[in-house]
Write a structure and sequence with these properties.
Layout (H helix, E strand, L loop, with lengths): L1 E8 L5 E8 L2 H10 L3 E7 L4 H9 L4 H16 L4 H11 L2 H15 L4 H5 L8 H13 L2 H58 L5 H36 L1 H13 L3 H22 L4 H11 L3 H15 L4 H6 L7 H13 L2 H55 L2
Antiparallel strand pairs: 1-2, 1-3
Helix pairs in contact: 3-4, 3-8, 4-5, 7-8, 8-9, 8-11, 8-16, 9-16, 10-11, 11-12, 11-16, 12-13, 15-16
């Protein structure tokens, strides 16, 4: 939702100004006219730094959506009508989520289906979520679908929390190491090494390297920061192009350790979502197309789109998956073949998701176990080099007297 500033006239002809929140300028004008005003101008409100911070703080997270879904599922299972459940959730919600729930309640009370009203908020509810709710409406099993959806979101949140939590410590150590090194090079080392110039001492090689590096950082740090900023902007612009997005996603999977971990995490979420949608009665063709649109990697997305085309032509799902070994491992196509033969696709996909989750968890633990000693070794080498480069000239000077 965007904020718009409007200028209008009331019934007496006096000028009125104010702000209104809407999805577009047309909707904003409609809301202003609904107040009995004649619109003169509608302009988007420029967001200040404070409003951006407030928007970030009030953003709707996966945890918020999972909690909303669980509460809605509990009330629907208890026999409450959707409108009454949404009315209760509106009073219990806070911030941006309260506004979204209020809009959904208004749409449902106006005669729209729940899935249609949810689709008006694509930043909160993804196509998978909407398709599952729609399948529950069509099949008359909304209570079961909402419970499964809540379970899936909670598992997804728990899994992401484990991965993120395991990687926070190494990330903080690495970032802190670079920041300390930058501060040392720009502010600390020049003051320490200026002492050596006063004595015209013959400096050892480590000290020369340290002074040269420090001079580069001290004199050119604005240029370095600008170069890094331009490099990040250029990379972002390149990644927004279809070719750039595919190239970077391919390289991401080829990175040592991290690439395999990223692929395992994506496959865990993919197979869990496929299992959920198949179990909710969504057709396999629609399932593949929807998941292709929400998966976060072009390599897997393109493979899913091609698999959907193969299935549409009449080929088995396992065969369609086996044609893309760059996206789907051999175990997935094999297990899918078992699911097709036994008619238990939902159970098979859920088991494969569990296998991928266990492997991802093991890879995360291995990564953190390997990163921590490596960081400590690099930190020790860096500190040792600094000590040698700074102390060795002092020792040479004192030995001359």
């Amino acid at each position: 939702m965007k904020r718009f500033t409007y200028k209008a006239k009331d019934k007496s002809g006096q000028a009125v100004t104010g702000e209104v929140e809407a999805s577009s300028a047309q909707v904003a004008a409609k809301l202003v006219r609904a107040r009995g005003l004649v619109v003169i101008t509608i302009t988007p409100t420029r967001e200040s730094l404070g409003s951006l911070f407030r928007k970030f703080r009030e953003r709707i997270t996966l945890s918020d959506v999972a909690t909303f879904t669980r509460q809605l599922a509990t009330m629907v299972n208890a026999g409450l009508p959707i409108t009454q459940a949404l009315l209760i959730l509106r009073s219990q919600s806070r911030g941006s989520l309260q506004k979204v729930v209020a809009q959904i309640l208004t749409d449902v009370e106006g005669g729209e289906s729940l899935s249609t009203s949810l689709s008006r908020h694509p930043k909160v509810f993804n196509p998978t979520y909407i398709a599952l709710v729609k399948s529950g409406e069509v099949g008359g099993v909304m209570d079961e679908v909402l419970v499964r959806l809540a379970d899936n979101l909670e598992k997804q949140q728990e899994f992401k929390g484990k991965v993120t939590g395991a990687l926070i410590y190494p990330a903080i150590i690495v970032i802190g190491m670079f920041l300390v090194g930058f501060i040392m090079m720009v502010f600390v080392i020049p003051r320490l090494t200026s002492l050596y110039g006063e004595f015209n001492a013959q400096l050892p090689t480590p000290t020369k390297i340290l002074i040269g590096t420090s001079n580069i950082f001290a004199k050119a740090w604005p240029l370095i920061l600008i170069t890094l900023g331009l490099g990040f902007y250029g990379f972002s612009a390149y990644r927004k192009t279809p070719a750039g997005r595919r190239r970077t996603d391919e390289l991401l999977f080829k990175l040592p350790i991290i690439g395999d971990l990223q692929k395992q995490v994506m496959l865990t979420e993919l197979t869990r979502t496929l299992s959920l949608m198949v179990g909710a009665g969504v057709s396999i063709l629609e399932t593949l197309n929807i998941t292709a649109g929400v998966v976060g990697n072009v390599v897997i997305s393109d493979a899913l789109k091609d698999a959907a085309k193969q299935v549409e032509k009449g080929f088995p799902i396992a065969y369609a998956f086996s044609k893309h070994p760059e996206a789907f491992p051999y175990i997935l196509s094999q297990m899918v073949a078992v699911g097709e033969e036994t008619g238990k696709m939902e159970e098979v996909l859920a088991k494969v998701s569990h296998v991928f989750e266990v492997e991802s968890d093991q890879r995360v633990k291995a990564l953190t176990s390997a990163v921590e000693p490596l960081v400590m070794i690099l930190l020790g080498l860096g500190v040792g080099f600094l000590v040698i480069a700074i102390i060795l000239p002092i020792y040479n000077l004192t030995s001359q007297f």
